[in-house]
Design goal:
Layout: E1 2-8, E2 11-17, E3 23-29, E4 40-42, E5 49-51, E6 61-63, E7 87-95, E8 100-108, E9 113-122, E10 125-136, E11 142-147, E12 150-153, H1 163-166, E13 167-173, E14 181-186, E15 206-211, E16 223-228, E17 233-239, E18 245-252, E19 255-261, H2 265-268, E20 272-274, E21 280-281, E22 285-291, H3 295-310
Antiparallel strand pairs: 1-2, 2-3, 4-5, 6-11, 7-8, 8-9, 9-10, 10-21, 10-22, 11-20, 12-19, 13-14, 13-16, 15-18, 16-17, 17-22, 18-19
Length: 311
């Protein structure tokens, strides 16, 4: 495997450059990378297990008129097109006044779409701010219906217990007279109980939260927290937008994924046409990551907010 390993501020990221010039995100955690933890999938032809990193997309994008490859998994934003076709152009590792910054340039020559996935670190803070630039470099206009600000597959791969036993997701319920009511749930409580062997995870069920319109906190705050109670690894996110937003957790070979983003066509009836100088920059999403008490992720996000405010 041709790997790019990034260790910054106590965070560990591992990208894979595939033989067909794809780029996958295999690991994003406060815990070190262990290649043995990568999830294997059921091979329908041989009946055995095989390692499949094809599904570890960190960028999903939908262009109007493009058929999705593979199976349609309900309302989930996986197996997108041209998301599955995007090829790596170059991987930039920079530094600016805030800290380290990664820029992953990718392209789909069929649609004439180029993207830059930005990952901005902040000195001394275990958090990363992510967003995506989309540009049409082809000769025909292209309709953009969805693009992820960040996506990660294999969120349950650390630890030995079942996801039913170790994973909890925290929702920040919100509303008039009921502001900031954080509640945690197991996956079975939200309808995502384990019903198949680990290597066959293909349910159409998705859990998450969405906001429609420019009142961004009328039902939920635009954030959430994923806790692995076995390993103490935690993922806390905030979607930095005062309009439509969404995050989702769902299943697909080879495991569970999370993605966070701004407006999209399916739920928000959002659409923009790319071309003739009209590019698009997605809603930024920040992720704070810690190992140990989940409240450490909250503390890191507080430092992240202060850094954004100071900037």
């Amino acid at each position: 495997m041709d790997l790019i390993q990034i260790d910054e501020n106590g965070l560990h990221l591992v990208f894979e450059k595939t033989e067909d010039f794809g780029c996958k995100l295999l690991h994003f955690s406060a815990l070190p990378f262990d290649e043995r933890s990568l999830l294997h999938v059921h091979d329908r032809e041989t009946g055995g297990l095989r390692l499949n990193t094809e599904r570890y997309n960190f960028l999903e994008i939908m262009i109007s008129g493009q058929n999705r490859p593979g199976e349609r998994h309900g309302n989930k934003y996986i197996s997108t097109s041209p998301g599955d076709r995007m090829k790596l152009v170059y991987f930039a590792d920079k530094h600016n006044e805030f800290g380290r910054k990664l820029e992953i340039h990718m392209e789909d020559k069929i649609c004439g779409i180029e993207t830059i996935s930005h990952m901005q670190f902040y000195n001394g803070i275990q958090a990363v701010r992510c967003w995506t630039d989309v540009k049409n470099v082809g000769t025909e206009p292209q309709g953009l219906e969805y693009v992820s600000s960040f996506a990660l597959t294999g969120i349950e791969k650390e630890g030995m217990l079942s996801t039913d036993d170790k994973m909890r997701v925290w929702y920040p319920h919100n509303g008039w007279q009921r502001e900031m009511q954080w509640e945690s749930y197991t996956f079975p409580q939200l309808g995502l109980a384990r019903c198949q062997p680990e290597e066959i995870q293909r349910s159409s069920k998705v859990i998450g939260a969405t906001n429609i319109g420019n009142w961004s906190t009328k039902e939920y705050l635009p954030m959430g927290l994923l806790e692995n109670t076995e390993t103490g690894s935690n993922l806390f996110w905030q979607i930095e937008h005062n309009g439509p937003w969404e995050w989702e957790i769902g299943e697909d070979d080879p495991g569970l994924h999370i993605s966070a983003f701004g407006p999209e066509y399916q739920d928000h009836h959002w659409y923009t046409e790319l071309g003739e100088g009209h590019d698009f920059e997605s809603v930024p999403v920040s992720f704070a990551i810690s190992a140990g008490d989940w409240q450490q992720s909250v503390a890191e996000m507080t430092l992240q907010r202060r850094a954004l405010r100071a900037a």
